[in-house]
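To the structural biology subgroup,

Please find below the input and predicted structure for Response regulator receiver protein, which we are adding to the shared reference set this quarter. The sequence is reproduced verbatim from the submission form. If anyone notices a discrepancy with their own records, reply to this email rather than editing the shared folder directly, so we keep one authoritative version.
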Amino acid sequence: MKQISVLIIDDSEIDRYVLKRQLNEVGVVDIFESDDGSSALEFLENYEENCKIYNKKFPPVVIFLDINMPIIGGFEFLDKFAELRNRLALKSCVIMMYSSSERAEDREKASSFDFVKDYMTKGEINTQELRAKIEAL
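Predicted structure (tokenized):
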């Protein structure tokens, strides 16, 4: 697998840990983490500085995004990211929703953004499926 950078945005430390382990198992080692949409947007705004600080490839190719978070939730993040993506030329960066919500409305709303490439339900994805989804990007 080609080396990529990812950003996990999830307020649950346990869910971030589980996803990070799965990503490591499929060969992803450049992983950034954020516990809410607000700090993730700030992180992306300053990506050139963060590239130097963390000495990692940047910007992330894939962002794993939870929906229900404090401060700025997933859908509000998507709205703000759409503008940021154009302004900062982050066109190669895509979103994979990573949520406990199985609601059809949430899936539909997420898929209305052209840069959202997948919707995964927490606890239902295994390492092989994750590898296939990342390789398909």
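Summary notes: The chain has one domain: 5-136. DSSP finds six helices and five strands in the chain.

Regards,
Lab coordination
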